Sequence to fold (101 residues):
Amino acid sequence: MNTNPWSLPKDRALRHLLVALNEKIADACDVDTGDNGDPCMITLHHTELAKLRAHVFLHGQRPGTYGVFFEYPHPVPGILETEENLPLPKAIASLAMHFDA
Fold:
């Protein structure tokens, strides 16, 4: 990953997710530095496929869970685009699968 998660001005829950994700797939994704500055959302992109992205958000989620919106370089019919209220292990697994493309 291209940044120290603890140095980001993001909610502690998102920084915790980034640390856990970094241990799992550090070489596959980076934090998008063009983020909108929302402390409750972060955008990640694949290191080689810039249009393969995921937006992780806390807005509207139960405490201790994450929402993820997936973006693909090309439309993929029948593929889940959003997951909500994911506990940390499931969020990490979903992101790992997404960026393992």
Notes: The chain has a mean pLDDT of 90. The helical segments are 12-25, 88-99.
